[in-house]
Amino acid sequence: MRARFEVIGVEELVDLCVNRPTVLLAAPNYEERSVGFLEWFLDACSSHSIDPSRVFTQLLWPQGTSTRVELLEQLKVTHFGRLKGQLERYPGWRRNVIAYPNDFNNREVLNALSQLPECFPGEPHNLVVDISCMPKRVLFSVCEGIQRIVSSADAPQQTSVFFVYTSPKKYAALRYAQNVGQVTGLFSGCPIHQSRSEHVSAFVFPSLQGYEGKLLYDGVRAHVSSSVTAFISVSGSDYHTSLATMRANQFLMEQRDVDVVYYFSLKDGLNKLERRIEDEARRTTGLEEHSRMILVAPFGPKVFVVAAYFMLQNMQTDGTPDTEIAHVGGFQYLSLYSLGVSDFSGFRLSLQD
Amino acid sequence: MTDKSLELDPGFIDAEDIVAKLHFLEHMESRWPYGPAKGFPLATRVTRSLTSLPREFSEFALAVFANVVYLPGTLLRESWSFLAEKTAQRQDTSVHDLIENCHLLEVDPSGLIRDFLHENRVEGRLDTDRFSRLQSIEELARCLLLLAESDSPKGSEAREIRLAFSKRYWLVLTDNVLSGTSLESDLTRCQRLIPAYADLGTPTLIPVAQVFTSTAAEYLPEGLEVTFALYFDEQFRVAPDNEECTLFGGKETLEGIVRLSRWLASQESFAKDELLLPTLAKSGDDMALGFKAGGWTIVTPNCPTNSLPILWYARAGVYEGPFPRIMSRTSQARGVGEELTDAAVDAAPQVLARLGGAD
Fold first, then answer.
1. CA gap B133, B120 in Å, rounded
2. Which one of A273, A309, B54, B95 has the fewest beta carbons within 10 angstroms of its own beta carbon?
3. Do B81 and A272 touch (CB under 8 A)?
4. What is the mean pLDDT of residues A223-230?
């Protein structure tokens, strides 16, 4: 089974929810966009006369522990309260909340996901995941859970999987990175520089902070041979943010051995990543298995975590090289991170034999 | 940068974040060089520009240079796959279907069609049964006139015309749509030709631009939506009292840059520059802020005239901007496009009769 990502308009997504029950999974936090899609979706369901009992909302509710910042907690509560108020206007709307600590154990998330198909037992349904503000490690667990669901025998007919990403109006001006960790692999849980692979082909989507790209570059260069491709976002309507990302990642872009690819939309980035990974897999065919690794470092928009997960799963199915998704732990939340709600982007996980 | 001190104000440099911005530009340029500068590093060119300006303008010039929107050719080329996808999506079709069913035209031909097809990995660019060689509206009009006027038109001309009009879409590709004048002119010509030759087919006209601006959006004919990769609005524009401009730290900087731009335009060498005269005439003003008062700080592989002349104007011994431009139009000869289009529209009955007969 191969997974592919297809763009779908959110209006079309709502149309698909008219005749098919829907499970909605989201992780509200202190960013306005974290509830932006949910609020829009609730209104859309109402205007499409969708029976509230045919929608089940599963919320992952982060409980701050060691990194609790009171002001941000207040914002979280405000957004969540607003959402609850809106949900209460639709009697019969089913919902469940899982609270999880920041240093979470992914079993809880996997457990919750494994139970989602039971929300509508035996009935074909949609699973819509709002990935906008899910922490990366949670999102990775969500991908694992979805992989298990869709791998079951009747999954393609039973569960249609969609992802939604909400862009903010703008990013906050100040983001001071604190407590920066090392680059680890989400599949293996091990630091990248400890990987046994001799050749590493890395595909990095740099963030607005920039430090992760530098850490990754250093980690990858420790191997016998390596290649790095940096995917730089060029936003058609917000060149200031693109410029800020480029400036933050100037070191990476300066390196002559880093290939730079510009992408102009999430879909364009997905297409270019898929093409580059396929080219790389072809280029390195014949090299001894496990001596090479294809590594995606999705430090930018969340959709690339999901896309990387399923693209790399495809490669593992094909039995080609070691694959890994890079993650840099850190605590950066001394600012709001993002402001406002801009566009919704929808993606369908299409499964082909 | 040089052994001659420019005596720059450190407070201004800090407030406008000039060190970081210029350093970033230097890196971009070292990796993707600005072709017309012929290998001179940016720092050298900036110093050269500053030393040829009156001292009172040094900081303002530096602020403009640091806030250049540098768009290298590789970035622009990579936009074609995105643009194909976006256009296909708008037409509710696939990229493959779009490309197989489109005739490609260019505004001011400069190899965009080749880049468009290469970036979209389209094999068979030169297949004459798939892609017509008529790559501009002017070539298309000329071909129609040949068909009308020649006693024995070649079969290839009839084939090219049939092929172009048989397509479902006409994609008009262009790099920069900053003022919108060139694109508007080509689109208007297409809009006149298509109905005149409706018997051959009525393709949908789709303008596709790498760079598009708010100024151009206001200028273009209604009802035609431009598909673009990069959009720049008033935030990126230098103009008197433009309160939306976000390029600079202070309003005084913007005002100083406008004064600097006016100073350059007032120089006799600029106002009477023979190479510039056709562009000045077409602009209809003194071009202090660039062609049609563009006021942009956009630098593409050949800096557009719509950007501030302080960036691109270069005459030895007078002033040399850091992004010298190779002028595309240097003669005052009027364009023949309008007359060609008129003639091609008038010739429609003969052409259609010939093509009908050739069937």
1. 18
2. B54
3. yes
4. 88
Query: What does the pLDDT look like over B29-87, one tens digit per residue?
Result: 999 999 999 889 999 999 999 999 999 999 999 999 999 999 999 999 999 999 999 99
Prediction ipTM score: 0.90
Among B23, B83, B85, select the one facing A267 at the smallest CB separation.
Answer: B85
| Residue where the block lists tokens 């197989």 | B100
Those residues with Cβ within 8 angstroms of residue A2's Cβ, 6 or more apart along the chain or in another chain: A314, A317, A351, A352, A353
Q: Does A6 touch chain B (CB under 8 A)?
A: no
- A8: exposed, middle or buried (Cβ count in 10 Å: 0-12, 13-18, 19+): middle
At B306, the amino acid letter reads N
Residues near B177 by beta carbon (within 8 Å), at least 6 away in sequence: B183, B207, B209, B211, B212, B213, B216, B220, B226, B228
The alpha helices in A48-101, defined as continuous H runs, are 70-88
Q: Residue B92: is it exposed, middle or buried by C-beta count within 10 angstroms (0-12/13-18/19+)?
A: exposed
Cα–Cα distance for residue pair A314/B220, rounded to 1 Å: 46
CA distances from B278 to A74, B232, B263, B326 (A): 63, 26, 21, 14
CB of B127 within 8 A of CB of B323? no
A298-345 pLDDT, tens per residue?
998 899 999 999 998 887 766 667 889 999 876 655 666 788 888 899
In which element (H, E) is residue A245 found? helix A239-248
Paired sense of beta strands A292-298 and A199-205, if any = parallel
H helix count then E strand count, chain A = 11, 15
pLDDT digits (tens, 9 = 90+) for A190-200: 888 888 788 89
Q: Which residues of chain B are within 8 Å of residue A273 when distances are taken between CB atoms?
A: none
Residue of A nearest to B235 (CA): A240
Q: Nearest Cβ partner of B24 from A250, A256, A264?
A: A250
Q: How far apart are the first and last CA of chain A?
A: 4
Question: How would you list the strands of the sheet with A159-166, edge to edge?
Answer: A2-8, A344-352, A159-166, A125-130, A22-26, A55-63, A94-101
pLDDT of residue B1: 46
Q: What is the pLDDT of residue B359?
A: 43
Is B79 in contact with A267 (Cβ distance < 8 A)?
Answer: no
* pLDDT per position as a tens digit, B231-290: 999 999 999 999 999 999 989 999 999 999 999 999 999 999 999 999 999 999 999 999
pLDDT at residue A92 in the model: 77
Lowest model confidence (mean pLDDT) among A164-168, A329-333, B5-9: A329-333
**Phi and psi angles of residue B74, each rounded to the nearest 5 degrees, phi first:** -65, -40
Strand partners, A5: A349
Burial (Cβ within 10 Å: 0-12, 13-18, ≥19) of residue A339: middle
Q: Most A CBs within 10 Å: which of B75, B92, B211, as the mutation test of the A interface?
A: B75
d(CA B349, CA A64): 77
Cα B214 to Cα B235: distance, rounded to the nearest angstrom? 10
Q: Which of A234, A268, A271 sits opposite B75 (nearest CB)?
A: A234
Question: Is the confidence at residue B358, as pLDDT, over 50?
Answer: no
> What's the rounded mean pLDDT across residues B1-5?
52
Burial (CB count <10 Å: 0-12, 13-18, 19+), residue B40: middle
Query: Is there a contact between A268 and B85 if contact means CB atoms under 8 Å apart?
Result: yes
